[in-house]
Amino acid sequence: MRKSTVFWGIVVILAGVLLLLNSFGLLGFSAWKVFWPAFLILLGLWFLLVPVFRKKGSNSSEHISLPIESTSEAEIILKHGAGRLTINAAPAGNSLLEGDFTGEVDQKVLRSGSQAKVQLNARGESFIPFESSQGFTWDIGLSRFVIYRLVIHTGASESLINLTDLQVTEVTLETGASSFTLTLPASAGMTRVEVKSGVADVNLVVPQGVAGHIKVDSGLSGVKVDTSRFAQAGNVYESADFATAANRVDIFVSSHVGSVNIQ
Fold it and tell me: Are residues 74 and 110 in contact, defined by beta-carbon separation less than 8 angstroms?
């Protein structure tokens, strides 16, 4: 039996027992307040300990640089798995995508006129901690001069994605047991965002001057939205000027277990 199966089996059983006891009023404390911090501690320990136990030379590294050529619009699909993912605006503007990758990557690039589709898959990708000794570290830069649609799949990972200076019109994120921070574009017109998370800590940052319409569908999630910027009506939050703003984001978040923070 794989270590990952045992580890996450124990985590799920403990969570179920705590929440069941809590629902029957048999605990003198809130199970939710205990489970979520404990999970984040376990996830943090994994990020710290995996590199220690990883065998030297087990991970290959490579640099990928894809030229823009005639591309003005691109769809980027990232199937990352477990590890660390960062995305920022590239310092130079002559690459459609460039970055450094630890762990083997399969890439597929399709071009048609001014449009391109790029898919990067972590080879032997693991979405669960301890599945293997390898973790995937991707540090990606995108061009300020291309209009992007991003589709991102992550597993047990830490993701820091800063789209402030990029032209991104659509973001689709599916994440499992992860910590995820996404800063949205400051001047991309309309950006649509869909986030589906399992056991995750999701942080979305809407730049000042950008209006927002936000809908949150949560299970056992702690949801915190800045209501000084986004007025609440049930599970929907919206800026007063959303209908007329030049730059705005339309966000839908579906979270099962975890925390959602939008500001």
Answer: no
Domain that holds residue 36: 3-53
Bridge partners (DSSP) of residue 222 are 259
- Those residues with Cβ within 8 angstroms of residue 152's Cβ, 6 or more apart along the chain or in another chain: 77, 78, 80, 85, 159, 161, 171, 172, 173, 174, 175
Whether 177 and 113 share a structural domain: yes
pLDDT of residue 88: 97
> Percent of the chain scored above 90 by pLDDT?
52
Residue 198's pLDDT is what?
A: 77
Q: Are residues 244 and 193 in the same domain?
A: yes
Please state, in angstroms and rounded to a whole number, the distance separating the CA atoms of residues 88 and 138. 11
Please tell me whether residues 86 and 139 are part of one structural domain: yes
pLDDT of residue 57: 42
**Which of 13, 33, 53 is the C-terminal boundary of a domain?**
53
Parts of the chain with a pLDDT under 70? 1-12, 15-16, 18-59, 124-135, 219-221
Whether residue 119 is found in the same domain as residue 234 = yes
Least Cα distance to 181 among 162, 194, 208, 164 occurs for 162
Q: How many CB atoms lie within 10 A of CB 54?
A: 14
| Residues 204, 181: Cα–Cα separation, whole Å | 6
R_g of the chain computed on alpha carbons: 20
At which residue do the structure tokens 């890439």 appear?
Answer: 107
Whether residues 154 and 220 share a domain: the answer is yes
